[in-house]
Amino acid sequence: MNRDSHLRRHVLMTGMPGCGKTTLLKSLAHELRGLRPAGFYTEEIRLQGQRKGFRLVGLNGATGLLAHVDIHGGPRVGKYGVDVHGFEEFLDAQKLDQIATPLVFIDEIGKMECLSARFVDLVRHLLDSSKTVVATVALKGGGLIAEVKQRPDVVLVEVNPGNRDRLVEDLASRVAAFTGR
Q1: What pTM value is reported for the model?
Q2: What is the maximum alpha-carbon separation in the chain?
Q3: H or E stretch covering 107
Q4: In what order do the strands lie in the sheet with 76-77?
Q5: How far apart are CA 110 and CA 25, in angstroms?
Q6: What does the pLDDT look like over 55-92, one tens digit per residue?
Q7: Could you tell me the CA-to-CA distances from 31 to 72, 121, 149, 179 in Å, in that order?
Q8: Which residues contact 133 (CB under 8 A, 6 or more apart)?
């Protein structure tokens, strides 16, 4: 399969940490709310100005814990203990592979999330399904992170603070076209 633009139907946004990937994803979810998308994004957990962890927020309002400095035992990414079991329970409740929507948002395909084999399988399944996936993806990394960037059916967009706001309208119209809406 070649990388002709008419074959692409997923959008992956990458860039340096803090460049605005999550902000862009949330803006796109808002712009495309008429398609009734499913999915989730991550938020920082801060205490007295210091980042302590990451919370999962479903587009349906559900929340869960992804990682925290106070999680001990189990896998770690940097200073954060990752709650793989809690993440998988959150994913199961979201039913992203079962819900009747043409559009799924994922924030993010990153090192913490990829510690879950269930997440890795879910991402592959969603990308192979008829749904359109809009996701943030870590700038660096192997495994699934590298794999999804090489797929012929994705548009890979590098986000930076200078282009983040301009990308909303362009990507929203592309995604709407991908879903046939």
Answers
A1: 0.94
A2: 51
A3: strand 103-109
A4: 76-77, 80-82, 63-68, 50-58, 38-47, 103-109, 132-137, 10-14, 154-158
A5: 15
A6: 999 999 999 999 999 999 889 999 999 999 999 999 99
A7: 39, 28, 24, 14
A8: 10, 11, 104, 105, 106, 123, 126, 127
